[in-house]
Amino acid sequence: MNLQTQSRRRWLGALCVLAALAMLLVEEFALKTALSGRNALIYWLVCLAFTLAAIVFALADARAVSRDAYESQRTLLESTLKEIEERKRERK
Question: Directed axis angle between helix 3-29 and helix 38-91, to 10°?
Fold first, then answer.
């Protein structure tokens, strides 16, 4: 796995979660009476967008980790089988 890509994906996910959390806290403590109607709808849709983006980044990261684990297991299995075959040839 490319460590830079993994790091970027995790940072973006964390930033999305923090942005959604910040929006929630700001609305709860500062904008509770100021938001109404269309502005409130837009505000919450933006918060929802940040939340969904965080979910997408988390799913992408989970998929990449799973793929890397599968590739590592496959490589280990192949190298182990090659080693067993080599030892078997040496015995003959």
Answer: 150
